[in-house]
Design a protein that fits this description.
The protein is of the alpha+beta class. Helix content is 20%, strand content 19%. The protein is built from three helices and eight strands, in the order H-E-E-H-H-E-E-E-E-E-E. It comes from Scophthalmus maximus (Turbot).
């Protein structure tokens, strides 16, 4: 004979098994609605964010020209980051695409065009900031290279009429006389249209994110320089003061001579 306590335990056992089954069924039905290659829902960003390499503490890059150990980690950071961009690796995995036009790879109805191909971004395109001709990226001379990347957004088309977006950098107003001349690689600091649209990590497994390098040729020594780099595009909206990371990145640069 089942006791009242046993009946209560049996009730809760059946009740919780029912809840677990409902939860599992709900999760299964929800997973059936998801696309492995593209988000079912995607917020439409007005302007993607930007980031720099090498990574410094709180977007600060500080080093002393005469102290190798102060910039050695920055150089190693760049070497590690750029290793997938080696020309030999790019030639093996990615296509040599025509410039200044989108590399569109549409699906054919229900037939997926996956995996999608990607365009080569060769390390040597960064010229003096590639780490090939100058393995110290200018840090040993007080002429550092900073790499800039635009955050990935699926299906984003960042330019029209064959005009690629480009990066410009400058000092904040109080530091305008400290920054000195800059040079950009690739020329004009462009993110070429051929690297867009981006179709997602799973659909475009070999995608190589385009980069822009900025080299500081004669920045003032022994002082903080507040630098801001921003994206310029004929389709992406300019970031607002309410979102300080939209289409731009700010960082502090300090180059000491001792």
């Amino acid at each position: 004979m089942v006791t009242p306590t046993g009946l209560i335990l049996l009730f809760y056992l059946v009740f919780y098994l029912f809840l677990a089954g409902m939860f599992a069924l709900t999760m299964y039905i929800m997973l059936l609605t998801l696309d492995d290659y593209k988000p079912t829902w995607q917020d439409r960003l007005v302007t993607p964010g930007m980031m720099i390499r090498p990574k410094g503490d709180q977007l600060e890059i500080t080093f002393s020209v005469s102290e190798t150990e102060s910039w050695d980690n920055l150089v190693q950071n760049l070497n590690t980051f750029l290793s997938p961009y080696n020309d030999s690796h790019q030639a093996q995995t990615n296509d040599n695409c025509p410039a200044d036009q989108y590399f569109i790879q549409e699906d054919s109805g229900e037939v997926r065009n996956n995996p999608k191909r990607s365009c080569q971004f060769n390390r040597t395109m960064l010229e003096e900031c590639s780490g090939v001709s100058d393995r110290f990226y200018g840090y040993n001379k007080g002429q550092p290279c900073i790499l800039i990347k635009l955050n990935r957004v699926i299906n984003m088309l960042p330019g029209k009429d064959g005009q690629s977006p480009y990066v410009t950098c400058g000092a904040k107003r109080e530091d305008s006389d400290k920054i000195g001349p800059l040079v950009y690689y690739p020329p004009n600091g462009t993110f070429n249209l051929m690297y867009y649209p981006y179709y997602g990590k799973k659909a475009q497994v070999n995608y190589t994110q385009p980069l822009v390098a900025v080299k500081f040729l004669n920045a003032s020594m022994n002082t903080d320089i507040n630098v801001e780099c921003k994206i310029n595009s004929n389709t992406l909206a300019t970031g607002s003061e309410r979102d300080k990371f939209a289409g731009r990145v700010s960082f502090k640069l300090r180059i000491n001579d001792k």
